[in-house]
Amino acid sequence: MIAATAPTGVLAASYARDRIALIAFWLLLVLLFAALAAPWLAPQNPYDLAQLDILDAKLAPGTQSSAGLTYWLGTDDQGRDMLSAILYGLRISVGVGIASTALALALGLTAGMIAARAGGWIDGLIMRIVDLQLSFPAILVALILLALTGQGIDRIILALVVVQWAYYARTVRAAALVELRKEYVEAAVCMGVSEARILLSHVLPNVLPPVMVVATVQIAQAIALEATLSFLGLGLPITEPSLGLLIANGYAHLLSGKYWISFFPGLALLATIVAINLVGDRLRDLLNPRLG
Amino acid sequence: MGYACAMKSATLIQASRLLLCALIAVTAVQAHAAELRIGLSGEVTSLDPQFLAAQPNLTVARHIFESLTDVDPQTRLIPGLAERWRAIDATTWEFNLRRGVKFHDGSPFTAEDAAFSLARPLSIKGSPGGFAAYVRAIASTTVVDTHTLRVKTKYPYGALPEDLNSILIVSKKHALNAGPEDFDSGRALVGTGPYKYLRYQRGDRLELTRHEQWWGKAPAWDKVTLRIVPADPSRTAALLAGELDAIEHVPSADIKNVNKNNKLNVTQTTSWRTILLHLDQYRTQPPGVSDLNGKPLAANPFMDLRVRRAISKAINRTAIAERVMEGLAVPAANIVSPGVFGYNSALKAEPYDAEGAKRLLAEAGYPHGFRVTLAGPNNRYINDEQVLQTVAQLLTRVGIQTRVEAAPMSAFLGRVRKEETSFALLGWGSFAADLSLRSLVAAPNADKGYGAWNWGRYANPKVEALMEQALGSVDRTKREALAREAGTLAMQDLAFIPLHHQVVSWAMRANLNYVPRTDEFTFAHHFTPR
Q1: Which CATH superfamily is domain A8-287 in?
Q2: Interface TM-score (ipTM) > 0.95
């Protein structure tokens, strides 16, 4: 476990040795900032229907509105400023990605640790549920859940948690089983350290690095899945579009040459997912002892 | 590695050979037989013509089957398998059937088949239905001779010829004891129509060949392939790429380009389909309706005519028709489209008047507005989801803060049936104003078959009395006057908010022609070479 013991500074320095990963890291920072600061950066609140004007619909990038606002990336079929819609959409996509991953991580971590420590039938039960869960395609499970629960940001996060927790549970259990057999755990047991303390202060920190790598990649997965569900019209309400929904809105206009309605949100989605994946890959290279 | 390469090249050679064969075959077919490939927009759930009364199903079914009464492109009744019909008395209709009509298996069409077909819709198990409404008025049928059928109605009923247009005539021999699965397999798919079943791939295509013994004018195409292409951009793309010869429902986003393309021909007309908004008028606390802080209102605002008028005034129908629908809509004020039986040309679409809407809201006690949730489908009508959003935008501007919940039609209908919606978008097409009123405006009554689509449960005894008089008249002139009066009354009271009548369009190769149909149906046998 080089990584777990390496100081943060060393980690940062070795991360920066890969130029592409470094660019991806800065791109990700910029995107995260844009998402967080959307209400202050965006020229228009695209979710306030009173600010939209149907007479400004489908304007090309660079057109000025009657009110004097310039639509740098054009408008969609409701007269929404695409730049504002993308900033707000990014906020939803990234927010949903992080929230669902954090919740799934917490759930998966708990389940995985319990399975590893308890063993026996509890381990069997949890891992069979995990197997069952992983045997269904994520998109199918999410589609069924959303069809049952209806639309809304909370429903979509719930669906993504249900879809994702099993990955963490499996990774955590595998890592924890390895750790539990190590001498330092035996030593701690001999010294009479309580079980909770062994798990939380000794095993958990050593389990985290591989899980964090899975989590980074899973955020990108969650964002892509949310975009897919929104594209299919099952995600968020149409009046509060995320990136997937923006792409879906423009899809019908592709043949008529109004490329900007789909293209720019697509570009934003692509940049986000690629940046997260590149950062995640680099972290895996650094933190995974098997590759390192 | 070497093995994989060898495999690859072997497959490649094989594939090119196949491709070559396919190309030769295609050229051969094109040289000898006229084929027409049409892209349809709706998913077909069953080939059984009496399983579900949905337009996509009926579009394919009407190639194979026919009905006693037919309608022309303007929805006026014309003879079908019945050459003539008349009301003998107030409750008896007599149909004189066409002679010399042959089923696809060569057997003759008789009054027995007609009587059997009229009785069948009520006997299909597990049918989601829709056809029962058309045969509900029938008390009994009598086969007078092989080509005369008498239909006795339970009460005086003038709309029977219209209703029977929806009942397709199946072969008694093949359909007796046959379920929808026998139709999907092609076994029971024996009709009198211009085309015969050849092959069917669910969700993809239905292939048909010409019925050489058809009684009508022989269609120009020996073979017809009906491709199911629900995705709008794909349908246009397939036409542009030459994979299809014609498509129905040209997407509004593409209509301008398709019109400009001189390799293509476009025909269009105002459809019978009226897009409207139903408003909850029966619950004191309709779901999704609240004050601006999310607290329940003291009363249901939709029950106040001033609020309904404010909503109607707040909607800019011209902007929707021009901007959202790209010209594929006509602003509506009537329950039926222009030219349809019972249309009142004196009614004019409500002009956009945001200030007037705000005044009416203030008068009704909502000076700052309230909150509503507008529900509707996102895959059924032309640009349905965009229309929902635009309505929300326009209502929000006058103070009615509107949230949109759009879902695929099946999911949306499920929510409507569970009464979870209070403000919802629906599209409705019909041959006559009184028939539309019966479904959309009459107070729901399962025994009478009234109000099956009156989601807001609007009830107005005066409208209903006029409608019943209209439906009970076998004299068509009298009936139309009554239907028009009933429809006008319902619209003046805003039983629902009419938005627009859809414009339906077809695009095809420049050397083809199609007479646009008000009822939106796409029939291969009506496509002609130019």
Answers
A1: MetI-like (1.10.3720.10)
A2: no
